[in-house]
């Protein structure tokens, strides 16, 4: 039987025990080799022999320096190690206290592998390694090895020695797999040095060892301190060595045995170094990225297509590695940093769709399997991995495979919720018990990575109803509370007994891991807010009646004002503030009059909206700009700001007393003062409308607002009549409309000054009791008119750029005084080389002669001019009849809605443009390349030889003059057909 000891072993054990001296014990040991056969050496027999030899004797042999003169110094050690290596495979012997106490001796022996007597020590070193590896097989042995800092010593041996270093690397990998990231010190130098040596070996070795090294490097990367390595890897060359080694494998004709280790290593590399690591090839950076992505997609499809969940679990390591590559690649492509052509995009999409169809197929089978609620730990981990990678795809391709996704969505929510609560409970306990940060990987939180996909899914009706049916809003609320506890960090309370002692001590600095956790939680809260905003807007009735959403609103009221005012919190602050506004709007009926529990929240939200724009930080003291503190994050919060302004306007209508905060804070008056200071043309139209709508709603809600705003003349004319002069809303609108009708019919009178004429128009439409207001109203109207007509900053920039390349001109129909007023107030002179007003000339558009006049002034043949206009019947028709090089139609906003349904063949031939654009900013892309003509003109202007050509008489304001124009029709009509279509100039209609 296995527990029985053979007679030869019993006899030898008795002899060893009875040995009186070391010499007799040596003799007895030689008898053991003669008397005992290997078949007699069962576990019990080995233990009996080992106990008979005794650790005391072996320790003497290992450590003694007193050897006979004719005996090599290493003989005693060799005998001891031979005995130990034979017996240490038994757990009881390998973890014996005396064996563990001998670890420093073993380490001292293996560190001599490059000494001069290496050849003589070869057997001893091998046996010492064998002892260390046997010890590492058992938990108590691994703990002892860690205590003796074996990882550091083995890493030093591997990086500094030449022989028998593979044993050292194997020992490192064994221990790192047990202790994880906590195996490494906070100084990453040793890790980088080890990776440099092993990666170089991996790159240059072309034997089977290359694939063994791939597995080992994978383990090292998987268990490294990722945050520390990622921050310190800059300047290290081992990532490039890895890239070359993996690239060599994947670009070669290889089988599964070679491909699998390479894919696993690549997955760990991109997980630690980022997907940008795949772009090392300067000449063709996307080549390896696309290769790796396609291989991962193909592998997933091969391993999962038409397979059961159990079959896939057997290849979980390989499939999960491919998942990592796919997820990181999808996230990277969503940033548009990679220039992929249409062919590349199509291939990528096809590959990904095939892979995720296979993933969905397995998930559907698992969702319908009765064992789905009894998954083992490894099975659940693989299920989480499938959900994670699938939701990464759904976050970018929300319309992909809708039917399949809907079938499995309840199961996805179930898995995600389980993972969240498991991860949350672990992290809370981990924090309370002050466990070492790197001791082990925390449970995966799949809900966290699923949030962006959920944000898109809840917009779809079917998916949203599943979301609500599963009560997912409750889970998201719990998730918000948890991440808030991390993002809104508070230092631990100081015990009362220590407060005096620690009063003047600085706050402890947060660890890099804490900072990373806070950053991740802020991002999670932003995603949660976006989901809850969508639900609030799309399910208004549910939100209005929901107790949970009332709790959420109360949470925001109470906690948002406490958030630290730091740049890192700005985006999160904005999302919580606007979510609160949306909830407040839906639950307005539940808010009691003067419920001042929301005071601090409203004040905080006003501050977020108020601080977004200002004039003080602009280079131009009359230009409104985005505040410096908002600029870095403006892309993320720009739409949020507009939504906040819009919702705040709606809330004031529903809860009028909240308007008092806008007055008391000075925000409303601040908006008015800002609008007064802003120069025409620098105020973005959408910002202007947001401010105007807010002010309008504010005045409706609170009569006390009008006197505040009156000081800055900020009300529109109709509002001014209604609020300040007692007009009814209907009469005010009618009066303003009548004036505009009269103005458009006859904007000026050549016999009367503009101010006098337009004031008269106001007098004509005002009731007899209010005709004295005509001059005031005209002044207000004029100010607002040119705010609306002002050129946006981007258009001004475009004109300045175009004028460096082309000659620009304006041809405008209309009365002299009105058109020149417009040109002067909008400062158009500085952008154009030629300005023609039809009333100053014998012709108006579409008469070809006015176009020929512009060509004459510009000194450019008609065939080299482009006409850009908003009216087909005047601008485009005239340009065509004058045989200009090209015509471009820029439809009015009212016409742009039908342009999409209007084909070119529906436009009459005589007014058919060469191109249509819906935005003036798209013009530069349409114009042909320019010559150096503009540059030459600019040089001439510097010396005073060139001046703007215009119909205006500079000596007398608005007096008509008739320029000296030759017979333009005969000059140009005969040569227009011979002109080239190259555009040096541009004639434009106002």
UniProtKB/TrEMBL annotation:
Coiled-coil blocks: none
GO CC annotations on file: dendrite
Superkingdom of this protein's organism: Eukaryota
InterPro entries associated with the record: HAD-like_sf, HAD-SF_hydro_IA, HAD_sf, Neurochondrin
Transmembrane segments: none
GO biological process: neuron projection development; regulation of neuronal synaptic plasticity
Cross-referenced PANTHER family: NEUROCHONDRIN
Record-stated family: Belongs to the neurochondrin family.
Protein name: Neurochondrin
Organism this protein belongs to: Anopheles epiroticus
Taxonomic lineage of the native organism: Eukaryota, Metazoa, Ecdysozoa, Arthropoda, Hexapoda
């Amino acid at each position: 039987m296995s527990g029985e000891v053979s007679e030869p072993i019993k006899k030898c054990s008795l002899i060893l025990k009875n040995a009186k001296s070391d010499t007799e014990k040596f003799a007895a040991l030689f008898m053991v080799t003669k008397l005992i056969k290997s078949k007699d050496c069962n576990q019990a027999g080995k233990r009996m022999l080992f106990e008979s030899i005794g650790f005391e004797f072996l320790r003497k042999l290992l450590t003694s320096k007193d050897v006979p003169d004719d005996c090599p110094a290493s003989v005693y050690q060799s005998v001891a190690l031979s005995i130990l290596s034979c017996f240490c495979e038994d757990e009881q012997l390998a973890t014996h206290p005396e064996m563990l106490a001998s670890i420093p001796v073993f380490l001292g022996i293996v560190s001599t592998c490059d000494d001069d007597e290496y050849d003589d020590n070869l057997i001893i070193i091998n046996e010492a390694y064998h002892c260390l590896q046997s010890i590492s097989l058992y938990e108590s042995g691994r703990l002892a090895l860690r205590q003796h800092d074996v990882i550091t010593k083995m890493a030093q041996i591997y990086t500094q020695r030449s022989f028998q270093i593979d044993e050292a690397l194997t020992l490192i990998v064994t221990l790192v797999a047990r202790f994880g990231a906590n195996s490494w010190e906070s100084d990453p130098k040793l890790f980088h040095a080890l990776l440099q040596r092993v990666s170089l070996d991996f790159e240059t070795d072309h034997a089977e060892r290359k694939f063994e090294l791939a597995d080992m490097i994978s383990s090292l990367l998987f268990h490294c301190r990722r945050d520390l390595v990622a921050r310190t890897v800059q300047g290290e060359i081992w990532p490039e060595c890895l890239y070359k080694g993996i690239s060599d494998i994947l670009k070669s004709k290889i089988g599964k045995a070679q491909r699998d280790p390479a894919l696993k290593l690549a997955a760990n590399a991109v997980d630690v170094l980022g997907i940008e690591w795949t772009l090392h090839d300067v000449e063709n950076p996307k080549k390896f990225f696309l290769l790796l992505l396609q291989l991962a997609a193909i592998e997933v499809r091969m391993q999962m297509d038409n397979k059961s969940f159990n079959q896939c679990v057997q290849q979980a390591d390989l499939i999960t590695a491919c998942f990592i590559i796919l997820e990181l690649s999808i996230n990277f492509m969503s940033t548009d940093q990679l220039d992929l052509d249409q062919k590349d995009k199509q291939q990528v999409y096809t590959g990904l769709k095939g892979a995720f169809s296979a993933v969905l197929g397995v998930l559907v089978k698992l969702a319908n399997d009765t064992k789905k609620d009894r998954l083992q730990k490894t099975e659940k981990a693989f299920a989480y991995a499938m959900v994670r990678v699938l939701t990464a795809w759904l976050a970018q391709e929300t319309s992909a495979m809708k039917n399949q996704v809907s079938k499995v969505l309840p199961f996805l929510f179930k898995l995600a919720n389980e993972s969240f609560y498991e991860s949350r409970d672990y992290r809370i306990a981990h924090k309370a018990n002050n466990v070492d940060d790197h001791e082990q990987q925390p449970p995966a939180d799949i809900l966290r990575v699923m949030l962006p996909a959920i944000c898109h899914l809840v917009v779809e009706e079917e998916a949203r109803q599943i979301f609500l049916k599963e009560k997912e809003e409750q889970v998201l609320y719990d998730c918000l509370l948890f991440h808030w506890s991390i993002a809104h960090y508070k230092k631990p309370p100081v015990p009362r007994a220590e407060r005096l002692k620690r009063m003047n001590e600085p706050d402890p600095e947060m660890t890099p891991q804490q900072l990373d956790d806070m950053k991740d939680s802020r991002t999670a809260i932003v995603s949660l807010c976006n989901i809850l905003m969508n639900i609030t807007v799309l399910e208004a009735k549910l939100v209005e009646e929901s107790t949970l959403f009332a709790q959420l609103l109360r949470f925001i009221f109470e906690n948002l004002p406490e958030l630290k005012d730091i740049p890192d919190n700005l985006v999160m602050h904005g999302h919580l503030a606007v979510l609160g506004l949306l909830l407040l709007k839906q639950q307005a009926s539940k808010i009691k009059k003067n419920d001042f529990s929301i005071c601090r929240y409203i004040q905080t939200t006003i501050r977020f909206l108020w601080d977004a724009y200002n004039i003080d930080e602009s280079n131009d003291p009359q230009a409104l700009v985005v505040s410096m503190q908002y600029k870095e994050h403006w892309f993320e919060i720009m739409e949020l700001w507009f939504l906040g302004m819009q919702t705040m306007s709606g809330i004031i209508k529903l809860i009028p007393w909240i308007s008092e905060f806008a007055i008391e804070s000075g925000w409303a008056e601040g908006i008015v003062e800002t609008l007064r200071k802003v120069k025409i043309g620098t105020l973005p139209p959408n910002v202007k409308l947001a401010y105007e709508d807010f002010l309008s709603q504010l005045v409706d809600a609170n009569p006390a607002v009008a006197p505040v705003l009156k000081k800055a003349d900020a009300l529109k004319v109709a509002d001014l009549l209604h609020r300040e002069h007692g007009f009814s809303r209907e009469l005010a609108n009618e009066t303003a409309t009548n004036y505009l009708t009269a103005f458009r019919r006859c904007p000026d009178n050549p016999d009367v000054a503009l101010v006098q004429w337009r004031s008269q128009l106001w007098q004509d439409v005002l009731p007899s009791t209010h005709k004295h207001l005509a001059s005031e109203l005209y002044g207000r109207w004029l100010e607002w008119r040119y705010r609306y007509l002002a050129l946006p900053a981007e258009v001004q920039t475009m004109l300045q750029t175009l004028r460096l390349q082309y000659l620009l001109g304006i041809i405008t129909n209309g009365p002299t005084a009105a058109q020149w007023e417009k040109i002067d107030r909008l400062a158009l002179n500085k952008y154009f080389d030629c300005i023609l007003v039809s009333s100053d000339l014998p012709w108006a558009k579409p008469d070809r002669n006015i176009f020929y006049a512009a060509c004459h002034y510009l000194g450019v043949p008609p065939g080299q001019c482009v006409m850009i206009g908003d009216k087909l019947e005047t601008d485009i028709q005239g340009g065509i009849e004058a045989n200009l090089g090209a015509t471009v139609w820029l439809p009015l906003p009212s016409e742009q809605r039908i342009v999409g349904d209007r084909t070119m063949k529906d436009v009459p031939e005589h007014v058919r443009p060469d191109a249509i654009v819906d935005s003036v900013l798209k013009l530069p892309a349409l114009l042909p390349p320019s010559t150096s003509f503009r540059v030459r003109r600019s040089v001439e202007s510097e010396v005073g030889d060139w001046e703007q050509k215009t119909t205006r008489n500079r000596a007398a304001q608005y007096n008509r003059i008739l320029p000296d124009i030759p017979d333009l029709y005969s000059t140009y009509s005969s040569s227009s057909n011979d002109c080239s279509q190259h555009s040096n100039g541009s004639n434009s209609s106002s």
